[in-house]
Specification:
Layout (H helix, E strand, L loop, with lengths): L18 E10 L4 H15 L4 H22 L1 E2 L11 E2 L1 E9 L2 E8 L19 H8 L4 E5 L6 E8 L13 E7 L1
Parallel strand pairs: 1-8
Antiparallel strand pairs: 1-4, 2-3, 4-5, 5-7, 6-7
Amino acid sequence: MCAQNVPTDGWGPVHAPGFSFHSRLDLACDPLATRHAVAHASDVLRNWDVPSNVAADALLIVDELVTNAVRHSGVSTEPSEAERGRPRVGGCGLALWTHSGHLVICVHDEADQVPVLREVSLDAENGRGLQIVAGLCNGAWGYTVQPSQPGKLVWAQCALKTLGCIPGSAWGNSEVYSWV
C-alpha cells in the first residue's frame, strides 16, 4: 500500500469513492525520467487545480523521489543473454492521486535497496533528498516492499487544504501514460 488506507493495484490506487483524481506515468529508469516525471506532474497538478504552494512542494518531491529511483535502479550492468550485451534499463513509475484531502505521490522502482533518512554533514554533496521530502510533507512519507514484484514503492502525502480549497469536484478521473 502506498499510503495508509488507500487500496492499490500493485503500485497505484484503484478507483474507489473518495478518490478525486488519479494519474500514472510509466518510465524507463534513465537520466531523462526525472525531467519527464516533473513535466508530467506539473501538467497534471495544474489540470487538477492544485494550489500553487502545494504543487511546488509536490514537484520537488517528485524530482527527489524519481532521481533516487534512477540513481538506485537505473541501468543494470548485467544484461540478459536475450539482450545480447546491451545494458538493461530498469523500469520506474510515478503515480499521483488525491484522496481525503491529500495529494499522494508514489514512485515505484526495481531496486531492492530501501530508502533511509539519514543525517548528513554540512559539507556533504548528496544525501539530503529524503530530508527534503520528509520536511515538505511533514513526515508523511514511507516505503513498501512488495514480495510479489521486484523493487519497492516510495510515497509521500501532502495536505491539499489551502485556504479551505480542495481541488477537484468529481472522482474517478484517471490517466495512464508511458515514457518507456
